[in-house]
Amino acid sequence: MSSAVSIRSLGRLHERFVLGRRVHALAQVLAELMPPNASVLDVGCGSGAVANLIMRVRPDVRIQGVEVLVRPGCQIPCQQYDGNRLPFADGSFEVCMCVDVLHHTDDVAASLHELARVSRRFLLIKDHLCENRFDFLVLKLMDWVGNRPQGVVLPYRYQSREVWKEQFRECGLEELFFATKIPLYPVPIGWIAARRLHFAVLLEKVATPARLSAKA
What we know:
By secondary structure, this protein is α/β, with parallel strands linked by helices. It has a single domain (3-215), classed as Rossmann fold, CATH 3.40.50. It has seven helices and seven strands, in the order H-E-H-E-E-E-H-E-H-H-E-H-E-H. Helix 1 (3-33) runs parallel beside helix 2.
């Protein structure tokens, strides 16, 4: 069996046993954190499945996406961008949402600053925590299984809780909610894959980002 066939087979197994549950769990958690009547930009929206389900749960919320490679049949309005500069003016959306995207970027801190620039008030982020070598190996395997079949670039830029906190501070962001218990995976996968490796955070802009103020 060729490696290409093996990767496609792995992708189908992931879709069948993991992806559907993951989409519903993420949508439920993120929908509960959305402010009322929010305009939302979903950065790196993928298929738009999570955002689409959020809007079904929260019909008062309006979400549009941006993606480096816009997928045919994306479930929300989506436009292409270069992966660095978002094609919107400062403060264009009340919320910028980013789900499992930042650890794929070339510069996590720069990407956070760009999200903060386009947001009027809130950032809603789902990503990973990596505190040791074992965490890194588990996350790397999960990333490969979930994203390699889609051709996603995998730089494996995972960060510790302290690094995330420092980057939030530099962007002038305050944590309003932070959680690591997100029921993404069924038993027994969850015993390994869900052990404080995932987080969801709602952030509010409370100050001018340090990088921007330094340039002023």
